[in-house]
Structures are given as C-alpha cells and as structure tokens.
Amino acid sequence: MKCDLCNKPAVVHEVTISGGTKKEVHLCLEHAQAAGIAIPGQQPVNKMLSKFVIGKKEGMESSQRRCGGCGSTFGQIKQANLIGCPECYRAFEDQLSMLIEQSQFGNSEHVGRIPRKMHTPSHNEIRARKLMRELDAAVTAEQYERAAELRDRLDELTTNVEHEDEADGGAPDA
After folding, report:
1. Packing angle, helices 144-168 and 123-140, rounded to 10
2. Nearest to 92 by CA among 117, 73, 71, 119
3. Residue with the larger pLDDT of the pair 65 and 41
4. How many structural domains are present in the chain?
5. Is 154 a domain residue?
6. Structural domain contains residue 44
7. CA distances for 173 relative to 104, 119, 165, angstroms
8. SS3 75
9. Structural domain range at position 129
10. pTM > 0.85: yes or no
11. Is 143 exposed, middle or buried (0-12, 13-18, 19+ CB in 10 A)?
C-alpha cells in the first residue's frame, strides 16, 4: 500500500472509527514522523500496548494523584504492594477496592483465615473440638455406640451455635 501523501510505501496504517465513520490513513516513514505518529518497531512494546488499554487517561490521572498523608501515588502502592499510610485508603478508595475484590475472589471484605493470635476460640468451639477428638478415638477403638452418642452431642452443639448466631443477627464466622 502507498502513502496517502506521496508514492512511497506506507509503513503506518491507522484506522479510526468515530461517530460510526471509518477513516483510514496510510503514511510513509517521513510523513508519519512529520505527523508525530510513532513508527512500529521503533517504540518500546509497553508504550505501544498502553494505547490499547481501556481508560488509559483515567489510569494516568489516578496514578499522578498523591495521598495527602504520605505523598504516595497509586502506581507506587500497586508496584510495592504496600499501602503508605491510613490516608491512602481514603485517597485511593476506588482503585484499592477493586484490588481488594480481586484478591478476595469478588468479596470486598477479608475472607481468609484469621491469625491465631487474633482469634480466641469460644467455649462452644473448644467443646466441639474435644468432642471431635473423642469421636475419632471412639471410632478408632470401634466403640460405635459411644461414637453415635458423641456424634449426636456434637450435632446438637453445632445446631445450638447456629441458632444463637441467627438470633444475634450475624452469620457463623468463616
């Protein structure tokens, strides 16, 4: 294909669709440089690909915005995987909520395990663990009547805990 402005071979082929109208421009190397268009093969790959990212302008504006508390940008936070200060949560709320949802499989709150130091088991949890150990021991010793009794007590304990949680208005902890 030839350049739209001269007879030289075109190295840049640009297709623009605006308002439902398709416009094609074909330029040779000299005319493309004069128009300020990046030449394929002479531009880093990441710059070329960034043209195809949706919302590039919005992403650039938010990465230039700085936290009032520590001065971090969202780009720095994302690169380091560390939040600079508590103010960052307010400054970058929208972007951080998307990252949190991605890391928590679509949830906006923590759904992982609780560190042992933070979680103190309730009286019912302790009783349930003890009953489970006794149940395992009874099955191993082939004491099936005792195992059935322990199973029923464990079932009753967990049923009562679920009813208490529903009465409190909360769901059982994950």
Report:
1. 160
2. 73
3. 65
4. 3
5. yes
6. no
7. 16, 11, 9
8. helix
9. 123-167
10. no
11. middle
